[in-house]
Structure formats: structure tokens, C-alpha cells
């Protein structure tokens, strides 16, 4: 089981089972009691409880703050992500 501290907002993760579009990579869009994920194959977003997400998560593929990601075309630093002010 992967701990909560090992993933963060805008990380790319791999789930145990693929989506209906046969892609297995997801981007974390929202963290809280529920977690919003965006499929990197078809673009569909889903929400699931954190406990279910922790159970279905296989591994973290890329971290949002990883310097290797700066070479990617659509890289957006974590500091530039919009976050609600509660």
C-alpha cells in the first residue's frame, strides 16, 4: 500500500486496472477526502474516496516537482497551479 505522503497534486500515477480507453495513466487534479483524477488517454475525470484510491493505486509514475519533467512539452511547475484559498 502506498502512503498518502508519496503522491501530491499534479503527479502522474498508475492504477491497478486500466480505464475503458485502455490507458492506465492518471493525473491527480484534486486532493482531499475525495481525489479527482484525469485520464491521460481520453481526458475523462473521475472522483473517488481517498481510501479507495489508496487501495487501487499501483505506483507513482512522475512527480510534479521532478526536474526531469521540465523537459516535457506541457510541464507546469507546482507553484503555478491554481489552488482555492480556504
UniProtKB/TrEMBL annotation:
It holds the Pfam family DUF951. It comes from the Bacteria. This is DUF951 domain-containing protein. It comes from Lactobacillus amylolyticus DSM 11664.
